[in-house]
Design brief:
Layout: H1 6-12, H2 40-51, H3 60-65, E1 67-68, H4 71-90, H5 93-109, H6 111-122, H7 126-146, E2 156-160, E3 163-167, H8 175-186, E4 190-193, H9 200-212, E5 220-222, E6 224-225, H10 227-236, E7 242-246, H11 249-258, E8 264-267, E9 273-276, H12 282-293, E10 306-310, H13 317-328, H14 351-358, E11 365-368, E12 387-390, H15 397-400, E13 407-413, H16 416-426, E14 431-435, H17 439-448, E15 453-456, E16 477-478, E17 494-498, H18 515-524, H19 530-551, E18 555-556, E19 563-571, E20 574-578, H20 584-597, E21 601-605, H21 611-619, E22 623-626, H22 629-637, E23 640-641, E24 651-652, E25 659-663, H23 666-680, E26 687-689, H24 697-700, E27 705-713, E28 715-716, E29 719-720
Parallel strand pairs: 1-6, 3-4, 3-7, 4-5, 7-8, 9-10, 9-14, 10-13, 12-13, 14-15, 15-27, 20-21, 20-25, 21-22, 25-26
Antiparallel strand pairs: 2-17, 8-16, 11-12, 18-19, 19-27, 23-24, 28-29
Length: about 725
């Protein structure tokens, strides 16, 4: 398992004429290939890289130079970045993109050094580290290719943030670290990069590569924080506009508690679950499950930690023995050994990780018991053979804790329907897998599964920019959920205001719009001026165009042939709240977008609606509440007084919505957003959309939709296999 397999699909299947542009991908972008193990020169190069791992000091100097131990030093860093960000954000997006193109070249040139650090510091195998470098290179090229859109959204003007904090997780210290840093930079923000203490050197080599590419050091600051002394000060600093986090959900909650109104966009990962249906190719399923479960010694964010066997698969001794043999045959060894299948843990296991490796729950037994291996005093406790436990249930420890360890739990379900219910209940909403050859299974699963990243007849691991972007639903994310490496990431990394002017027509018509939308606009027409009606009409038409071109379609963005990598959008429930001074046409504009998306939404407003509009919304099942800000916030906090109760302290509670769309003038909405943040405290499950309302369908539909990346294996027995084509 020395190298990844990305180069095969790049060179053998993907021709120049089948570029991603044809499928709605980034213009001119093409994924870089991983190192090719079939090339003798590449094998010799890899051996040389591995030979430097044990004595590597790369990144040490930059990490030491970036050390900040007090708040005064932190103030100076943030002031420097804010100052540099002003002229940077004023540049055209195309000019910023040129620097990212240079960054892609710089990262590629430093591939050997970055791999060396990932293996030395984090225990990554060469194939794992190589794929991470490719992700970083791709991110630079992809965001450079998509950045121009920031200056070209009709009806809206992008306003960059000044300072973004990028805080990557230790198990994605280069790929996701670089992707988030580059996205913030090309969106016009300065960046304070503060890596995990377990990945200081990896973050440092990323920063060095970007500095070498022409990113000013004042614009991108590498900071190695004393977390106890300065971590809270960084997040609470008024000079910070946004945080891009990849880490534990508890970290996101802690950040939100420290500064409730600060936008935090986080990938919090968690428990990933795969289903094996009776129709699955069991040989391929075993291979994919083992590959996905034990990547980065089970510590990869995309690793599957739980597998649900459906019906006859759970009774199949063939499947069980094959899984046992495959796991038992994996070779555990140092990251600089090309024969290693599994490398070391990032640190000696403790707490939940040690429990997962050593303690069985009620009714559980080891199919393959993990063992601590003695491979030298310098790595004591970090090498463990992989384990598989059976008898796991929905209440087991492994289904409740997100454990980064080389342990796979096996559950059983009688039907695919029940398996999906289990998967949704115990999964975190990040990665979900399915192994099947039955079109009906796939159709049911795609309609029901609750996760952002879906893998069918494929390993769970991997994150290829554009082709397989990363994101989360539910507890696997915080913030707006725009996927890293996807088409919506950049537009979420700043704010938007409406542009002035815009084309108008002397003949105001609603032809070509959905009948539900025309009915809503016509119901409101008597209350609108000519200009307001025209503005609303243009917004509705922009929604129709955006829906037809992007949001209402399922796109195979890469057209590889051997895989189907699909991008689609699913409606999500949203609560809309209008301020007392919100323009009526702005409220209607948001409702038009909500209807177009197919979302289930509600409306809360301080003033009553025109009778025709209220009647139409009521007939459509839209809940409308007329209430003051104080009453609405009280309801958001957890309850409202029950008028039917004798006790005035009795409250009616309702589930808190997952998304809020605030509508009103910028200053009023900003104050209301702060009030919302203070009301819900550190509840990162609530996402607030507070941009000014525009006519841009590209922007106004996003609060009502969730992105989903679907990757389906389509290569079997040496040939392209299109069995899933009829389903999606």
């Amino acid at each position: 398992m020395l190298f990844g397999g990305q180069s095969f699909v790049d060179t053998a299947v993907f021709s120049a004429r089948e570029s991603a542009e044809l499928a709605g991908g980034a213009p001119g972008f093409r994924n870089v290939a991983d190192t090719d193990p079939t090339v003798p020169a590449d094998r010799a190069w890899a051996v040389a890289v591995l030979g430097r791992v044990s004595d590597s000091t790369a990144g040490d100097a930059a990490a030491a130079a970036g050390r900040v131990d007090d708040e005064a030093g932190l103030d100076a860093v943030i002031d420097r970045v804010r100052t540099a960000a002003e002229p940077w954000g004023a540049l055209a997006a195309a000019d910023r993109a040129a620097v990212l193109q240079s960054a892609a070249r710089s990262l590629e040139q430093r591939r050997a050094e970055v791999i060396e650090v990932l293996a030395s510091e984090g225990g990554a195998l060469l194939s794992e580290a190589d794929a991470e470098v490719s992700q970083a290179v791709d991110a630079a090229a992809y965001y450079a290719a998509t950045a121009k859109e920031l200056d070209r959204v009709p009806g809206a003007v992008f306003v960059p943030d000044r300072v973004s904090v990028v805080a990557p997780r230790w198990n994605a210290p280069v790929g996701l670290c670089a992707a988030e840093t580059l996205a913030a930079l090309v969106a016009g923000s300065g960046v304070v990069l503060t890596p995990s203490p377990r990945a200081r050197r990896a973050g440092a080599v990323v920063a060095e590569a970007l500095w070498a590419a022409g990113v000013p050091r004042d614009l991108l600051a590498y900071v190695d924080l004393n977390e106890d002394a300065s971590g809270r000060a960084l997040i609470a600093h008024p000079g910070v506009d946004r945080v891009l986090l990849a880490g534990a959900r508890t970290t996101a909650e802690r950040f939100a508690a420290w500064r409730p109104a600060l936008p935090v966009q986080a990938f919090t990962a968690g428990r990933n679950v795969a289903i094996v249906a009776p129709s699955a190719d069991l040989d391929a399923a075993v291979t994919d499950i083992v590959s996905g479960a034990f990547a980065r010694a089970g510590q990869a964010a995309t690793a599957v930690s739980l597998v649900i066997l459906v019906g006859a698969v759970g009774r199949s001794s063939r499947f069980t023995e094959q899984l046992k043999d495959a796991v038992s045959s994996l070779r555990v060894g140092p990251s600089d050994d090309p024969l290693s299948d599994i490398g070391p843990l990032v640190e000696e296991p403790a707490g939940e990780v040690r429990r997962a490796l050593t303690v069985l729950g009620d009714g559980e037994r080891w199919l393959v018991e993990p063992r601590e291996l003695d491979l030298g005093p310098e790595t004591a406790g970090r090498f463990w053979s992989p384990g598989v436990r059976t008898g796991v249930t929905a209440g087991s420890h492994l289904t409740r804790a997100a454990v980064a360890a080389p342990v796979l739990g096996i559950l059983h379900a009688p039907t695919v329907t029940r398996a999906i219910e289990l998967q949704n209940a115990i999964g975190s909403g990040f990665v979900a897998g399915l192994h099947t050859r039955d079109e009906a299974d796939l159709d049911l699963w795609l309609d029901s599964v609750e996760a952002a990243v879906l893998r069918v007849n494929r390993p769970s691991t991997g994150a290829v920019i554009q082709r397989e972007p990363l994101g989360g639903w539910g507890e696997a994310s915080a913030g707006d959920g725009a996927m890293s490496g996807g088409p919506n990431r950049l537009v979420t990394l700043g704010s938007w205001r409406p542009s002035t002017g815009g084309a108008s027509s002397s003949t105001l018509h609603l032809r070509g719009l959905d009948s539900r939308i025309t009915a809503l606009i016509e119901a409101a027409q008597p209350t609108l001026s000519y200009e307001a009606f025209d503005w609303l009409r243009r917004g509705a038409l922009a929604d129709a165009v955006a829906w037809d071109r992007e949001f209402g379609r399922v796109r195979d963005v890469s057209r590889l042939g051997v895989e189907r990598n699909l991008r689609r959008y699913r409606p999500v429930d949203v609560a809309v709240r209008a301020t007392a001074d919100a323009a009526w046409q702005a409220v209607l504009r948001v409702l038009v977008a909500a209807v177009r998306s197919g979302s289930t939404f509600s409306l809360s407003t301080p003033v009553g609606l025109p009778a025709a509009v209220r009647h139409l919304l009521g007939e459509s099942g839209v809940a409308v509440s007329v209430e003051s800000d104080a009453e609405w916030l009280q309801r958001l906090a957890g309850g409202i007084p029950d008028a039917a109760a004798d006790d005035a302290e009795t409250f009616v509670t309702a589930p808190r919505p997952g998304r809020l769309r605030l509508v009103g003038p910028a200053d009023t909405v900003a104050a209301l957003r702060t009030a919302v943040a203070e009301t819900v405290g550190g509840d990162v499950s609530l996402t607030v959309y507070a941009n000014e309302v525009t006519t841009a369908g590209r922007l106004e539909l996003l609060p009502f939709l969730r992105e989903q990346a679907v990757s389906i294996g389509a290569f079997r027995f040496g040939a392209v296999d299109a069995w899933s084509a009829a389903v999606i």
